[in-house]
Amino acid sequence: MTLISKSIQQSLSSSVSRRHFLRAAGATLALPWLESMPSRAEDTGKRVVVNEAEAPVRFACVFFSNGVEPVHWWAKGQGSSMQLGPGLQAMAPHVEEMNFLGGLFNEQAREHKSPHLGRIPNLLSGGWVSTDPDSIRCGRTMDQVLAEKIGGRTALKSLVLGIEPTELRLEDGLSMLYGSSISWSSATKPTTKEIYPARVFEMLVDGAEGRKLDRSVLDHIAADAKSLRTELTGSDRQKLDEYLESIRDIEKRIDHASQEGRLEGWQPTITEPNIPRPNDALPQDVPTHMRLMLDLIVLAFQMDKTRIATCMLNNDLSQMNFGFLEGVRGSLHLDLTHNGRDPELEAMYLKTNQYHVEQFAYLVDRIKQIQEGSRTLLDNSLLLFCSNLFDGDKHEADQMPMLLAGRGGGDLPTGRVLDYLEKGDDNRRACSLYLSLMDRMGVELNEFGDSRKRLSDV
């Protein structure tokens, strides 16, 4: 944290230390991390704000379904000279801030008879997926372990987001609930996934129940924001202005996205609704929906509303239509991934892989631009990008595609290719990675899932 003079600290202590929110009738907005604001320990009535002289570490997992084309998913070299395969090209500007993780797997997933539903709900837990159709059971995931241990420090314990709705049909004799959930609060309970950007936005604004989205929350707190600006340093005034502008931008985009007339995937049998229009509708195209959800993660982290988030870009066995991509036509995502090595379908599958990577690169870039003292929000984050399968066509579960961006508080080395299968490491369990990541979040466990060891180099 950049030092500020004692006189400035004293002048701020009587006002800023008591106001870590912007308030007005009907709305309360948490402030981003600001250098001018001294460490604090206060009871807000909803949560305890813990003394922290530096910005906290955040964790997010961005999931994409059905694996990759292995021939296009690779990395070589290190640092600025790292080379990436065609599937990863969108991450080229960020190679110095990421680690390519190869060879990690979940034992219980690899051994499961269901090639899909036995290999997705345990992505972040390493647990066994029940084969009894009458018993939903998997394992509590590492994001929810973090939520239990440190979630009380923020207004929201975690954000669990997605693009496609939770499905309840059966597939391979198992519930598609398994294919719709990567976050589990307990072994028998998937964490509720939110797919509506408007609802997520409302979750980030305390006391705003009933506020209409067509009136900006910033209109409510403008006077308080103006008063606060006079109490901040120059750099923090700029940071506050950028933060407020990002909120206004998201509000406008949510409103616009819910009014668009396009639909992805199958076409309905009617073109006009035959029931009254629901409020706060879902975005009507996939690209807008994905970007809004990622922007809301950025906003949540910047506001310190939560430090833990997961986002499913699509469900397993996804019915998402990628016809919005140039050169992709006719087939749903599931069909493209199960392509039987048909060259035309493989080419379209690569485009969907590239698109997913572009979304992660977008998140990394957004977070990288936000300064928190002498570090960036990316320096203070652990961003995991992964899928439950490696070769999607072969349902290969002996390893998973994984990228890890961010420095976890500033001291995690990045710009590396860490391929645990290639180097013959006998500890290449994904749960070893999760133990290491939880350590960096301040949660130390003796064991998790199928591992009692930390992952070397992480």
Quick structural overview:
The chain is an alpha/beta fold and 458 residues long.
Features:
single chain, alpha/beta, seven-stranded mixed sheet, two-stranded antiparallel ribbon, 10 helices, 28% helix, disordered N terminus
SSE layout and pairings?
Elements lengths: L5 H8 L7 E4 L2 E4 L11 E2 L4 E2 L8 E6 L11 E2 L6 E2 L13 E5 L4 H5 L30 H9 L8 E4 L7 E2 L2 E2 L8 E3 L2 E2 L6 H7 L13 H13 L4 H24 L28 H18 L4 E5 L20 H5 L5 H26 L2 E2 L2 E2 L4 E6 L15 E4 L10 E4 L10 H11 L18
Parallel strand pairs: 5-14, 5-17, 8-19, 9-14
Antiparallel strand pairs: 1-2, 3-4, 6-7, 8-18, 10-11, 12-13, 15-16, 17-18
The H-and-E topology, N to C, reads as HEEEEEEEEHHEEEEEHHHHEHHEEEEEH
Tally of individual helices: 10
Report the sheet-strand fraction.
5-15%
Structural class: alpha/beta
Q: Largest beta sheet: what is the strand line-up?
A: 9-14-5-17-18-8-19
**Shape estimate:** globular
Major sheet details: 7 strands, mixed
- Kindly report the average pLDDT value: 83
The count of strands amounts to 19
Q: Helical residue percent?
A: 25-40%
Distance between the termini: 24 Å
Low-confidence stretches: 1-19, 39-51, 207-211, 261-279
**What's the alpha carbon Rg, rounded to whole Å?**
22 Å
Question: What does this molecule look like?
Answer:
Helices cover 28% and strands 14% of the residues. It contains ten helices and 19 strands. The chain has a seven-stranded mixed β-sheet with strand order 9-14-5-17-18-8-19, with helices on both faces. It has a two-stranded antiparallel sheet with strand order 1-2. A hairpin with a 2-residue loop joins strand 12 (184-186) and strand 13. Helix 6 (234-257) runs antiparallel to helix 7 (286-303) and helix 7 (286-303) packs parallel to helix 9 (343-368). The longest helix is centred in the C-terminal third of the chain and has 26 residues, at 343-368. Residues 1-19, 39-51, 207-211 and 261-279 have low confidence and may be disordered.
